[in-house]
Design brief:
Chain lengths: ~270, ~280
């Protein structure tokens, strides 16, 4: 079967190329890992010895920890907001018929293509105009706008798979709209809701461009990182944080993906 | 439906409308006389600095997008058509870096490319180069910006191409082979044409965000890697702010993106950007 598309040698060449690209993608991350344990103020060869100093430094760095907390808080609020709006829009897009549906769907997805620099500046002008002081909430507002399309893209295909007659049966048995949503629809789309939540959370936690325009006095983690990147003395410490964050996020992403596959297999089998 | 649409109307469309109003001088945050005028637009059109910068950014994003689409195609082809059993694990391996922190991946390259960085210090250490003469074009250059952008977007690009190859009806390939077509011929006549929508979508989803990029150039670009997005930020920033000109540049970029989106819309399917 596979030899219609690829000869044995062709497959071997492509496998080698794939391996090369994976090395290219992971080498920088591995290099960060190595230098996070290096006992020197500048990350350069030759390696000068093993140390946990930088990890210790980052544990006692109050600014850094505060920025991580701020980002986590913003990401939680963003993902709750984006998932609620995403569920509302997806249900409307999949289940209801209304005039202007195509336009509504285009509007809901359009933040996917807006250049973040333009959106950040526009939002800043809006907050200036209506006199809203910049702070955590202004960042959350911007982040909900840019993560909403991702939640819709995850939720809509899942909703389309669900047999509408299940919901109709619930209505026939006298369930209210909300009751039907809570006991029928929500449990069925729960895996998609969780991945939407995760996508919104990680996007918001990592977002620098829009946040840089509308952030207040409390730095988010990316904003802290960006300013730290300009001071070489802080570099080794930042590398240590980088390694921790990269490993945590890789683990979460892989675990979530595997979890989703297992959950969907179970739903599919039932 | 009302709530999400209202949210976007207030926090997405209204801000852009304000920028538009600003660019035509029908609105300004500062007191003073104003009224509808095309003055700022005309000034930008005659100021070749901005147009040149825009063109330079187009060329940079174009090269990055084309190169990584060409690199990603064989990767997606291998995953979708080689019949490997670990297809989804390998796909996850490929896209996982994309889901980690953007700034940290830029940081990694800053550490690698600097004058005292990993590459240069390695060359000094091994005696391949004297420490008075580091390869200084590595960081703070147009090359650095393009390398880092390619690094960041490569995993993402493989996805839409993979989706289009994965959904390809393999019986078509068998038919081609039964009719005596070689693998190469079947590729040119069947596989490639059928995967073009995925390739175009992949190109679009890299070209558009890299065109407006300002974070990577500001960190690794220096003067020669300065892009259009940086110019917009600077016009709104400290120093010599000129919000009116900045608004014109911002609106022009939106216009370009809208035109591209409409032009490419028949190739864009929402599921291409999620890992479903």
């Amino acid at each position: 079967m596979n030899d219609v598309a690829l000869s044995k040698n062709g497959a071997r060449v492509l496998r080698g190329f794939f391996a090369l690209v994976v090395v290219f993608l992971y080498a920088p991350i591995v290099i960060l890992l190595i230098f996070s344990f290096n006992n020197s103020d500048i990350p350069a060869f030759p390696l000068s010895g093993f140390t946990l100093h930088w990890y210790h430094q980052f544990l006692v760095n109050a600014d850094l920890r505060a920025s991580l907390e701020t980002s986590a808080l913003i990401a939680v609020m963003t993902s709750i907001g984006a998932v609620v709006l995403g569920v509302l829009s997806s249900i409307a897009l999949v289940r209801r018929k209304f005039r202007g549906k195509a336009a509504a769907s285009a509007l809901l997805l359009s933040p996917l293509v807006i250049p973040y620099v333009v959106f950040g500046i526009s939002l800043l002008l809006l907050f200036h105009t209506i006199g809203v002081p910049r702070g955590m909430f202004t960042v959350v507002i911007g982040h909900i706008v840019i993560t909403l399309p991702y939640t819709i893209l995850v939720l809509v295909p899942r909703l389309e798979q669900i047999d509408e007659s299940l919901e109709e049966a619930a209505y026939d048995l006298g369930a209210s709209r909300f009751r039907t949503f809570r006991s029928i629809t929500l449990p069925l789309i729960l895996p998609a809701v969780l991945s939407a939540f995760l996508i919104a959370f990680t996007t918001s936690f990592d977002e620098y461009a829009v946040a840089s325009f509308v952030v207040g006095s409390r730095s988010t983690f990316p904003i802290y990182l960006y300013s730290a990147l300009r001071f070489p003395s802080q570099l080794p410490q930042v590398i240590a944080v980088a390694v921790v964050v990269l490993i945590v996020s890789l683990t979460v992403v892989v675990a979530a993906e595997l979890g989703r596959r297992i959950a969907e297999r179970r739903v599919g089998a039932a | 439906m009302g709530l999400p649409v209202a949210w976007l109307a207030v926090f997405f469309l209204a801000p852009i409308a304000i920028v538009a109003a600003y660019s035509f001088d029908v609105y300004t945050l500062f007191p003073g006389p104003h009224g509808f005028t095309l003055h700022a637009w005309r000034a930008v059109a005659h100021e070749s600095v901005y147009l040149r910068l825009f063109w330079k950014s187009v060329k940079m994003s174009l090269v990055v997008s084309v190169v990584i689409v060409l690199l990603a195609y064989p990767l997606a082809y291998y995953l979708a058509l080689s019949g490997t059993k670990r297809k989804y694990i390998l796909l996850l391996l490929l896209i996982a870096p994309f889901l980690t922190s953007y700034l940290l991946r830029v940081l990694a390259w800053k550490v690698i490319l600097g004058d005292q960085g990993v590459i240069n210090s390695f060359l000094f250490w091994t005696g391949l180069r004297s420490s008075e003469h580091p390869i200084s074009q590595l960081l703070y250059s147009r090359f650095a910006v393009m390398l880092v952008l390619a690094y960041i977007w490569l995993p993402f690009v493989a996805l839409p191409i993979f989706v289009s190859l994965e959904t390809l009806d393999r019986r078509l390939l068998e038919a081609a082979s039964d009719l005596g077509a070689s693998r190469l011929r079947a590729f040119w006549a069947v596989t490639l044409p059928l995967s073009i929508p995925g390739v175009i979508a992949a190109f679009f989803f890299v070209f558009v965000p890299t065109l407006g990029e300002f974070v990577t150039p500001s960190l690794v670009g220096g003067a020669s890697g300065y892009m259009y997005g940086n110019q917009i930020v600077d016009l709104f920033g400290a120093g010599f702010p000129d919000w009116e000109t900045g608004s014109v540049l911002a609106l022009f970029l939106i216009g370009v993106v809208v035109v591209l989106t409409v032009a490419f819309s028949r190739f864009l399917q929402p599921q291409q950007v999620t890992a479903e």
